[in-house]
Amino acid sequence: MSVSFHGIKCRSLARVLGLRRNLLAFIALFVLHVTVCAQEVDVPLHTFDVAPSVQAANRFFEALDKMEFTDEPIRFAPGTSLDSLRQQVWYWAAEWFFFKQDYKKAEHYGLQALKYFKENTLERSDCLNTLGNIYMRLSHFDKAARYAKQGLDIELRVGDDDIISSTMNTLAAIYMAADQLDEAENYIVQGLERAERADNLPRKAVLLGSASEIFHARGKDSLALGYAQQAYDLESRLGRQGKMAIRMAQKATALIGLKQYNKAEHELRAAIPVFRQTGNKQSLGIALNKLGTVMSRQGRLAESVPYFREAADIFSAMGDLYNELHAHQGLYESLWTLNPDSAKIELTLFSTLKDSLYSQATADALARYNAEFGNELLQQENVKVRSAQRRDQSLFGALFALSLLSAAGFMCYNHRKQQKHAEGLVREIERLRMQVALPVAEEQEEADNTEQPVSESAEPNEEQQFLMRVIDVVQASLAEGTYSVEAIASKLNMSVQTFRRHLQQSTGEKPKAYISAVQMQKAHDLLVSQPEMSITEVARQCGFEEVSSFTHAFKRAFQLSPTAYRELRTTI
Asked: Which of 247, 279, 311 lies at the terminal end of a domain, its last residue?
């Protein structure tokens, strides 16, 4: 099957850069399982590196597909050149190791792949942007910016404002992380102009949110609040509840900067239940940290502690040490007047985090600790802290690689969670079809009764129109068996890259997952509405040549075989 390789970006899980007690427990529980899962990809990759061939490349991509890392199976035909094989295998290896947070290996394979991409192509731009993200994670901000800028130069020659705005957002994030806020502001302003011209509302909302964070970092909180409000208004128009909650948290950040603590608390208390409901742990932890800060700034120290504590637990479990750092800092500052002994424990935890994450913050905290506890006690505590660091570092070398593999462990061990996600996506497609169809039907009925034309208010919005086009095209293509990502994109008169981008912006889903959900939604309709249709025919109508493959996919989405599902639904 021929597929397009550009336009796919794999976002890494939270960093796993240090050793905490719960992380060690996690490694002890999953080490064997994780190692097996990782080897399914790493072994064929090593085989290809030693002796590159079409067979070795296909085994590597079979392993990625088994791990559900690619949108659809990727295979190379006999006679494919070694340069093409090296280009794609090593590019995807870079993405794989980036996903596993093994950034040094990701860097190695990304640089190797780059040699085989032609100049001035979007595929080369993708590889450059991957290297930019890798170097940002490695805190090599100069290299990160250099590679991302090279990708931007290619995109500027192509002239796609939507793609350009996305890369400018990445560059803004790189410069913000490097604390070069002038450059960050420059790129986010240009990115917003491009997003405006592209008329991509979801993209514009993302850039407005980034602008809010950048202007907050610059101390321009009135501007930051305005950008966050604009982002919230766009998300509200798009009906994206989860994203609306993120924008509320961004508004709260600006309000904290403006010392409008009551308003900030109101925004956070509205956002936090949404994060809990949607399972967005990252945003939940950040919002809890912010709510703790609101309490602390108002002198409500005892109230702030549970919020900082929960945030610390969330980020520790995720391995996100950057945000965990801020939770422990908040705990230290809140506990100092409440319980100095507990405050010392929090400072110790704070101080043993990765040097690149805490150098300046720790210096500030230790200076305060010195002033309040006295120089002699500080020296004693420093000895304990450094001793604990050395013990952690001695373990770090032996177990660091295993901690990096936790991402693969989540993929293999979390199958039931994936099932729930698949079922939820099918339900969302069904809900969308009903949401669009029902108002039109009601308007038509009213028009028939009154002999008036159907009003324009029945028209779905642009995002709904796009998704309904996707659903209709996929459903029409299933029985023909022409429903690959590439085929659907072509029928929509889009490039594969543009199709992927628009679908992920609208739904957050990869095309392969969304197409599979449309298949399952059609299967649901046929099983329930046509009880006389055989399972074999349902499978064929849904694009499956083998009933066994259909049964496997259906059980993954609904946790029941097609026969059992039909019996259950027809008896309700």
From this structure: 279
